[in-house]
Amino acid sequence: MNNKQDLTAKIQDSQILDARKDQIFALINDNELTPEIIDQIKDIIQEDIDENMADILSDDQKKEIIDMENEANDGIKAIATEIANDLQFVESEMQELEDTLTSLAPAMDEMNMDSTRKDLEAATE
Fold it and tell me: Is 58 left (phi over 0), alpha (psi -120 to 50) or beta?
């Protein structure tokens, strides 16, 4: 058997709605099984799964799922805000260090020149 025949047999034996099976069969029959076509078939199957899950779940379960999704999204937003604040703090600290180094540069240059002068004086004695 080839891939198209295998896929057709699996789809035929599945519990996917007939209208969606027809969509899938049209894609299989009219096209090569490229990654794009396979993605389209997966999308159709996912639609069927999502619809069936929506039918299976009670209103309370659906509300619970939505509440969990909202809670997870709120948690993600809080973490993103915390990370942004931490990054802002780090950037501020780095800027302070850079400013300190910049302000110390003339003194460091002077110390280096003094050290070099002393080395030269010691070498000429």
Answer: beta
